[in-house]
Amino acid sequence: MADTDWPGCGKSLKGVILDMCGVLYDSGEGGGVAITGSIEAVKKLKASDLQLRFCTNETQLNREAFVDKLKRLGFDISVSEVFSPAPAAVAVLKERGFRPHLLVYDGLLPEFDSVDKTNPNCVVIGDAAEKFTYQNLNEAFRVLIGLEKPVLFSLGGGRYYKEGDGLALDVGAYMKALEYACDLKAEVVGKPSPTFFQSVLNDMGLQPHEALMIGDDLVNDVGGAQNCGMKGLQVRTGKYRPSDERHSTVTADGTVDDLAQAVDMILKQRH
Amino acid sequence: MADTDWPGCGKSLKGVILDMCGVLYDSGEGGGVAITGSIEAVKKLKASDLQLRFCTNETQLNREAFVDKLKRLGFDISVSEVFSPAPAAVAVLKERGFRPHLLVYDGLLPEFDSVDKTNPNCVVIGDAAEKFTYQNLNEAFRVLIGLEKPVLFSLGGGRYYKEGDGLALDVGAYMKALEYACDLKAEVVGKPSPTFFQSVLNDMGLQPHEALMIGDDLVNDVGGAQNCGMKGLQVRTGKYRPSDERHSTVTADGTVDDLAQAVDMILKQRH
Hints:
The structure is a homodimer of 271-residue chains. The first copy, chain A, has 271 residues and is an alpha/beta fold. Chain A has helices at residues 38-47, 63-73, 85-96, 134-145, 171-182, 194-204, 218-227, 259-269; strands at 15-18, 25-26, 33-34, 51-55, 82-83, 100-103, 122-125, 152-155, 160-163, 166-169, 187-189, 211-215, 231-235, 254-256. In chain A, the strands form 4 sheets. In chain A, strands 5-4-1-12-13-14 form a 6-stranded parallel beta sheet. In chain A, helix 1 runs parallel beside helix 8 (259-269) and helix 4 (134-145) crosses helix 5. Chain A starts with 14 loop residues before the first strand and ends with a helix. Chains A and B meet through helix 4, strand 10 and helix 5 of A and helix 4, strand 10 and helix 5 of B.
């Protein structure tokens, strides 16, 4: 889809939800680097009459540390504007009386401080990178297979992501390994779960058709938002691949070069 | 099914195929331990007019080392009688011009000595246990995702196995992880692949209805053999679970306490 064909929803639009990694910044050594124009684009959105939230499947750091990292890159963001899987999972665990065995990044552990973790009756996995050892994965497997009714929560379900010099397996791959070994279906907390997108809409007090999601992940960002009745815009940064524009099941409502271009188009349509 | 109900195929039977781990021996520290009566049962089969082959998804050792291990436990077995996934995979790789990136136990590597491994155009994974590190799995993933048409061979597709004090994830779990990350379907070499069972039948020169498979794995041994037209008998040793006897899709042609009982019943029916 050519940029100029992008069907504006500018006039009726009341809120914008931004994916973070691949839209605001590219990850990498030392916290990553801001994508050109994205800091200014966030400023423009904040100065407009649109509501703004950030929606990420980031699970390497707790929200405080993650927001600090983005502030250091130059972004004007506060913790209350950021929606990530771990707090959503904590709410589900408490609501349903689950005590998790955790296989997540050490940096994420503080998010689970308030949760009872004794005598686990479920497993929660996030992207754990180097912590996805044979031993740790077996340990999580043994907890699950030892439960009468094994329950697995996965913080996101991504296939892979770009990390420094190459691609790396994301949590979804390990979720599938445990699903197969234990003959179960994991509950994904985070994008593209409709419950997750809905919690962001609830926070803004908006209906789906009043909100636009902007992300670099065609399936999880764009497709997930569309499944909830929102419009979904893909940026050609981050994990974007040209083949996304001829994907078999998901078609973005628009494809733009980067966040800066997206924001300029949105704001232009409103005036 | 009660043991006494076992429908004999004794008179028409011309060959028996035995699974190894969980039927002949239990694995564990120092090479494992023979299951009571199994050494004598193999002797009885060899003294009969029945053909005998061994069919294993063992991929921790090459066949020579594996057979040596069983000889030390007291079994009368030779390499030519043993069918395992690695040699079957080597045949497939050579036939189809594949140069593998290998993620397998070090002990299995000699099986692939004759295969060109430069500039890989496919990935072969076996049960690799401690070698299933985050780094090694990412490396295999990167080879696959970098190929125009990624091809993954899995030496068996087991979910998990018993190892010493507990259960451990088997190769199938890691196969599923790579399948999901790369959006592909792996080719399983070994049980329950029909090609694999057929190669054993070919070696004996028998038709499926003339052969009986005996194993502890209901799906891979019994179900796999039945899918090829053989009878399949399950033993209540190894990874057998009582719930196997009310499985939703696979029903064994008979269930017996152990190999010793199976062999006594087979030989009794022939006289």
